[in-house]
Design a protein that fits this description.
Antitoxin component of a type II toxin-antitoxin (TA) system. Pfam families: PhdYeFM_antitox (PF02604). This is Antitoxin. This protein is about 60% helix and about 20% strand. It is an alpha+beta fold. The chain folds into 2 domains: about 50 residues, YefM-like fold; about 45 residues.
Length: about 100
């Protein structure tokens, strides 16, 4: 198992290693709050995280879905062209404010 270079403790392990050491890895995740990036043939296929991080991710997903729903409602009935024009205008205003 190797450590991925980041601030948080993310370990990388093959699916075979995870299968062989699942109990130990769960203890490590639970007590050290590490995360495990599971790979197969060198490619990431899954992640194992502690329950606290999992719950945060679920809450963020719910909030994101709520925000997307609000945006969809705000532009309901508008054409793509109208929305793109509004976005261009907003970007222009934002850039001008940033120059002040």
């Amino acid at each position: 198992m190797r450590q991925v270079e980041r601030d948080e403790m993310i370990k990388e392990a093959t699916a075979t290693t995870v299968r062989r050491n699942l109990g130990d890895l769960i203890k490590r995740i639970q007590h050290r709050h590490d995360s495990i990036l599971v790979t197969k043939a060198g490619k990431p296929v899954a992640a194992i995280v502690d329950i606290e991080l999992f719950n945060k991710m679920r809450a963020l997903e719910s909030e994101f879905d709520r925000l997307v729903g609000g945006l969809q409602g705000a532009f309901k009935g508008e054409t793509i062209e109208t929305v793109e024009k509004a976005l261009r205008k907003a970007k222009t205003v934002s850039r001008r404010r940033g120059r002040r």
